[in-house]
Amino acid sequence: MSFPILQKYLARLSDATGAASSIWLDHEGKAQGRFFNCTMSSAFQPIRELASGRVQAYEGLARSVSAQDQGLSLWKLLDHAASDDESIELDRLCRMLHAINFFRQADAGGQDLYLNVHDRLLSAVSSNHGHAFRRILDALELPLDRVVLQLPAASPQQGWLLNYVSDNYRRNGFRFAVNVPSAREALHVLERLRPDVFKLDARELHDSETLQTLLTRSAQAGVALVFKRLESPQALTVLRQLSEAAGVPLLVQGYLLDEPRADLLDAEARAVAA
User: Fold this and answer.
1) For the segment 17-27, what is each residue's pLDDT rounded down to a tens digit?
2) What is the phi/psi pair of residue 43, to 5°?
């Protein structure tokens, strides 16, 4: 699928220089951006179906531009940004870069793009979360329905804020995922908020009874489950056992299967996990 408006925008970016623009293209056609004195670009980590191994989505990750392959993670820059306004600027720059670098690639196919929303943004944006990013996607005529915004884990005291922000994203047409620290917390969130996706840590699989309950209730509510940070064969085995016992499909993401990289996988690599 091609996106003509995006292609015109990229053609204009190819004439820009790093010194004159906050976003430009490198010699390989990848979009780069600048935050203070740091140059950044995008890496994408696949999210695969557990049963088939097929890639269903990618998570966009900010990376410093480095002579080494993928550079360093830049997400912690938001933790040290001097002000809320600068946090908002960096967060939106990252999401725009990822959207450009994802949809400019022909192999984006029908996969979804997961984009992080930093926890500082939950309270820093005064109203109408998602409106500014929706305007960018609309201007470039990029498909809103293929973007999933990932919300950070919220404390019990922030529950109202998570509800408010998620409602804004939904009103602006976005699907959203919620990161949760445990299956028990996911069940609490499910009672008051119905996200499109839960993201859980594949290193925390000890409470099998609660996990089974979560799998069943999430399937009934139409909520997908992604287990991130999949790093060991043992965790992969446990997830397969949980999925088979509950009869519920799961999605998985982690270095055991794929490393983040700038280029999306080709059709053959998307079909089977490495």
Assistant:
1) 544 568 889 88
2) -130, 155
